[in-house]
Amino acid sequence: METLTRCFGGRDPLYSAYHDTEWGVETHGEAALFERVSLEIFAAGLSWLTVLRKREAFREAFAGFEPAAVARFDAAAADRLMANPAIIRNRAKIEATIHNAAALASWLDAGGSLDRLVWSHRPAAHAPAATMADLPVFIPQAEALAADLKKLGFKWVGPVVAYSTMQAVGVVNDHPLTCPLHS
């Protein structure tokens, strides 16, 4: 009988807790999903653990990721964020997050829902991977989600960011078969 082991996060308590209690857990709500998309953008090209360690500072800096609040950020707010050593100071990603918040807030005001949009891309079937190394970089549903977000005006949301978001919020269960949280 094969021993099941956590698929990631085993050496860092914060990362282990994230794996055990958040990653792949069904997540709903406009601010919660906007936060996940935004943090996945900040994680692009970096380790997720780097972002995770700064998550509370991001939440504080970005008004709890409430889309309407972030949409009101101006150039001075972007400058303040660039001066904040507690977050990742990448101007393009900061400006994209503010821009995305404005696009989302406008769409929400018109009756749209990020929650409905993200969850509408849940695959009818999703084959489990044997190991983390066997996971694809993205799936067709992530390409479609990225395209839909871009139609809304979002920036920095390619299929990889969309797929990472889908994994994080439980749209897909990508805990591999060897992970105790697979089921």
The total beta strand count reads 0
The name CATH uses for the topology is: Endonuclease III, domain 1
Please tell me how large the radius of gyration is: 16 Å
User: Tally the helices: what do you get?
Assistant: 9
Largest sheet report: none
CATH superfamily: Hypothetical protein, domain 2
The top level CATH class name? Mainly Alpha
Number of domains: 1
Estimated structural class: mainly alpha
Overall shape: globular
Q: What are the low-pLDDT stretches, counting only 5+ consecutive residues below 50? A: none
The succession of helices and strands, N to C, reads HHHHHHHHH
Mean pLDDT: 95
SSE layout and pairing:
Blueprint: H1 13-21, H2 30-43, H3 48-61, H4 67-71, H5 75-82, H6 91-109, H7 114-119, H8 140-152, H9 159-168
Can you give a write-up of this model?
The protein is built from 9 helices and no strands. The chain has 183 residues and is mostly helical. The protein has one domain: Endonuclease III, domain 1. The longest helix has 19 residues, at 91-109. It is globular. It starts with 12 loop residues before the first helix and ends in a 15-residue tail after the last helix. 33% of the residues are buried. The model has no long low-confidence stretch (mean pLDDT 95).
